[in-house]
Specification:
This protein is mostly beta strands. The chain contains no helices and ten strands.
């Protein structure tokens, strides 16, 4: 989470870069992609149960791809900044966001 100063009200506003609707899904990595312009996020299910979460980015997203750990693209998930992802127990998912 990062903070912005609101010049009109002089209050501190808080905005999340990425949100998950499920507390069992943990964001472990957020970094610049190695070989292509974009962002890599890695999420994992910190439970013994199947989990579904809604991911919401605070910016316009052109493409979201599920990738291998080495950032090789596997399949496109969406072209929206808001989508759902299903996790198996203890599963790690890596996403490329453009």
């Amino acid at each position: 989470m990062y903070s912005l100063k609101n010049s009109e009200t002089d209050n501190l506003c808080r905005t999340s870069f990425v949100k998950s609707s499920n507390d069992n899904i943990v964001l472990s990595i957020l970094k610049v992609a190695e070989d292509e312009e974009g962002i890599i996020i890695r999420l994992y299910n910190a439970s013994n149960d199947i989990q579904i979460t809604k991911i919401d980015f605070s910016f316009v997203v052109k493409e979201v791809w599920k990738t291998k750990l080495n950032e090789e693209k596997k399949n496109m998930i969406t072209n929206s900044n808001e989508f759902e992802v299903s996790f198996k127990p203890w599963e790690i998912i890596t996403l490329f966001i453009k």
